[in-house]
Design brief:
The protein is of the alpha+beta class and 125 residues long. The protein has two domains: 37 residues; 73 residues, no CATH class. It is 46% helix and 28% strand. Strands 1-2-3-4 form a four-stranded antiparallel β-sheet.
Length: 125
């Protein structure tokens, strides 16, 4: 009879340890993780756009600068560096006036051609 009691006691201890481990990972670990994190993040992901399998564009804000990054399985490439004021201008609600450059009625192909032409004029690839 004492062997059965020892076996039941060991089983009860194992169940208690598993239950405590579950409760700690469920509720306690999240609170402890916040203690070691810096209060203010210096880098934030503003937006991500998937382009294909394992490929995406990521807009990252670091301080007063925005970086447009291309992310692929082969690495991360900086595509553009912009001042944060450009993002704020994009986030402003459009006024009743039509845009000056006529971008509202522009198709994707026209917009892409415009960006390529601008890059050629500035001498960037």
């Amino acid at each position: 009879m004492p062997e059965i009691l020892q076996l039941l006691w060991a089983l009860l201890v194992i169940i208690a340890v598993l239950a405590l481990a579950y409760l700690f990972t469920r509720y306690g670990a999240g609170r402890l993780n916040g203690m070691f994190r810096p209060r203010r993040r210096r880098m934030t992901v503003v937006e991500q756009v998937p382009l294909g399998r394992d490929q995406r564009l990521v807009l990252v804000r670091m301080g007063d600068t925005l970086y447009l990054l291309g992310v692929t399985p082969g690495g991360v490439s900086r595509l553009e560096k912009l001042p944060a004021s450009e993002l704020e201008a994009l986030e402003e609600p459009p006024s009743g006036d039509p845009p000056q450059d006529g971008a509202q009625g522009m198709s994707f192909g026209e917009a892409l051609k415009k960006v390529i032409d601008q890059r050629k004029k500035s001498g960037r690839p």
